[in-house]
């Protein structure tokens, strides 16, 4: 292993953790701007050190485990959430030569697999807490995440068919002439909705609906274990934004600017879009969320697959 590869392996998780931490400040500042109020503005210039203050506070909070909880599983759940949130970044290509795992020929399947394993974190957290609110939140999360994994996978079939590969490098290379967001606009819409549901962010944060379930699956958590769930959530936002950039927005491709800067600008715009959704949309009922997936997104994603396959066959003939 070369020194550059070693430092890449060490630095990438640190960068992702730093981004996830700073996103808490960015989100609150943007929410304040859009909702015509002050965001954090006391700690540091523009409140920039608020994330550091929050992280320090949660680090020194009492690490309490309820006596009625299943101790081993209770501790394991946030670890699973953290790991499944960070591991997919190993195959995300920021530029042609910047990435931990390099050009993995099944990179997209690896990411979908890791995102699928993330459901164990919330289910185990809800079950191990031995609390009604936490268990209901965990069951909601299981149904929501497993259902929307189906639509996410189907929405990406069009991209894979057009690129002819599961390699993220090949998918970016296939967008040299035209970004896939144009021919795959329907798949992009389905993927975005599925990504929001997978990260259980507003308006699809029903597993954590505070007006119904307290805090949902992590109601009984405190201290750094609660912080690990928060970091996993914000890492999920960065991951879905990076995937949208790679699969639909041409990845690092762009004129004049350095490739890494193009990737950062595109992914940053998607993160801002995630935050804008939280500021502007109400939370639907749970039955409405599931109906949206199975009655609307499933037929649309299947239609997108059939339309893409038909067009590719006609072009080849």
Automatic annotation (TrEMBL):
Keyword Cell membrane: yes
GO terms, molecular function: NADH dehydrogenase activity; oxidoreductase activity, acting on NAD(P)H, quinone or similar compound as acceptor; quinone binding
Membrane topology, as annotated: Multi-pass membrane protein
Transmembrane segments: 6-26, 73-94, 106-127, 148-166, 178-197, 226-249, 261-280, 292-314
Superkingdom assignment: Bacteria
Enzyme Commission (EC) number: 7.1.1.-
Pfam family, one: NADHdh
Summary of the function given for this chain in its UniProt record: NDH-1 shuttles electrons from NADH, via FMN and iron-sulfur (Fe-S) centers, to quinones in the respiratory chain. The immediate electron acceptor for the enzyme in this species is believed to be ubiquinone. Couples the redox reaction to proton translocation (for every two electrons transferred, four hydrogen ions are translocated across the cytoplasmic membrane), and thus conserves the redox energy in a proton gradient. This subunit may bind ubiquinone.
NCBIfam families attached to this UniProt entry: PRK06076.1-1 (NF004740), PRK06076.1-2 (NF004741)
Family from the record: Belongs to the complex I subunit 1 family.
Subunit structure: NDH-1 is composed of 14 different subunits. Subunits NuoA, H, J, K, L, M, N constitute the membrane sector of the complex.
The protein, known as: NADH-quinone oxidoreductase subunit H
Originating organism: Komagataeibacter swingsii
Underlying gene: nuoH
